[in-house]
């Protein structure tokens, strides 16, 4: 399952049933879990002194699509899925079921929880902290330097269930509260309260998220999104979300 | 004309005089028209269940530049031209003379007319509908989900001759009228009338397009652009545009 | 030091101790200086008639990271460093110590000075003029067409020491004065005076740059950045900057 044109270091540790596509390079300091697929034209475990000797650890059942580049010194839980040509630098630590869309650029030195999903072309600056079940949409940038260029690094923090819509920028040190929504094309320079919508440049409070109605004719609220959007989440988690929604409906 | 390092499926159907560059992969479900060139490091016909068995059909005289990825299940008319590292997913249906700039990311499930030109790094969400002779400039995003994440998909519609300037975002379900111009760095949340300029965030009416003067000292109006910009269009089409311009001049 | 899978034209001129990675292509009209490293999956010297016969000249000690593409007809001073998957077209003329971040897209026909640093994913339109010691941050676009599409090309000018923060767009013909700072998410449609901060859409004067304080507890001003940020600059240059800072401190 290793293509004959792939170049795999004898020092790399590949689990059982790992597939490696044509023209892919796997460097020395790499550990890949069982049942993972690495597509063509990838470069996995790109060496860097900044990894400080740490290996690249990719959990079981990963799917890394073609033309992607991962540096040494990062680690990922099970079922990592990427689009094409993602770039992930050293000291990126992510949980299980992380999805990175095509062209994603993760600068490393950041912490990412479980079930986080990045759509295409997001840029995650160093020292970002991202919780669980977070969604980040295309062309969003998380920054870190309040007066570039400088040595001051103030990463953004994104709490669980938050969603950042397309082409928004999160300025250094900003905290996005649990379940908040950042509207498209926003520039966020202040913290955003949990379960609120902020939008604009600079972003301002718009409403509570539960005031946004689903445009599907149901009359239901669109947030928390976990009450109606379940694609790709495990059954146990979805049941918990449905129970939460039912309890909320009984309250009101 | 197939490079010795290229990997071409025996099931792929290549026309006459098709050239395939080094380190390029052509998968099973691919039909490429006569006289086409596929550069190096490409992946053509990436398999996906979402193609539902449909082949990737690329018309004659295509030029696909290096590091590009096309999924199975899309089709293109003659003379497709791409920049480097474009990504085009399944069920993208485009007409003739389509140009996609470097880094373009077409999410699939969309309809695109003839003579459409994307500059670098555009992102086209699923369910977008794009007419003929449309121009889309760098870092423009066409979105589709009014309250992400959700199952509601409302693609944008871009009518013939419209132009969307750099780093603008078109929000879900918006229709851009024929010949309109969207100013750079805009966020468009409402329909835009034909032959008008809209700009800002949120985008608002600025003027009719024919009020914009060409900055070339000629004193002529800059729109409709087809009255003065003809590079790469066929002679018959240009003659029609020139006749239209002459008729308009006689009227005024 | 040429990997066995690399394809290097016998007409390319490689200096001493040049390293070429796997699956990389080096075309005919290429001159690479001593001690340079070209990573894997690159395409160097992509042929184009627009180069008008000029070679691609890369100075000594370059580091070009994987998946990058350089066209024929450009030239670079010593110590060029790139991230991954950069695209640089013909007639890009840059000085020494140029850095281009991952996904950078330089459209060619532009002039760039010494010690210029682009972070990830910048787009430099044709006819841009960039001075020395300039910083450009992610998702910044320099445009050139005042009424797209047209034949009028008015490149932007960026003077020495200027910094353009993330996701800003510089409109055609705009001049950014020496040492100015463009705030993140700005759209700049007018010239910006030296040593001032401009921000917003459209960008407006905010303050003089020396009114911005460093967020490091030092109480010092954040600009000119050269008075406190020295990473990667040569000792002689840094000493000059420190002397300038000391003289300024004595004045005040």
Automatic annotation (TrEMBL), chains A, B, C:
SUPFAM superfamilies: Trimeric LpxA-like enzymes
Organism (species): Roseateles aquae
Organism placement in taxonomy: Bacteria, Pseudomonadati, Pseudomonadota, Betaproteobacteria, Burkholderiales
A Pfam family: Hexapep
PANTHER family in UniProt: ACETYLTRANSFERASE
Sequence similarity: Belongs to the transferase hexapeptide repeat family.
Gene3D superfamilies tied to this protein: Hexapeptide repeat proteins
Name of the featured protein: N-acetyltransferase
Residues passing through the membrane, by range: none
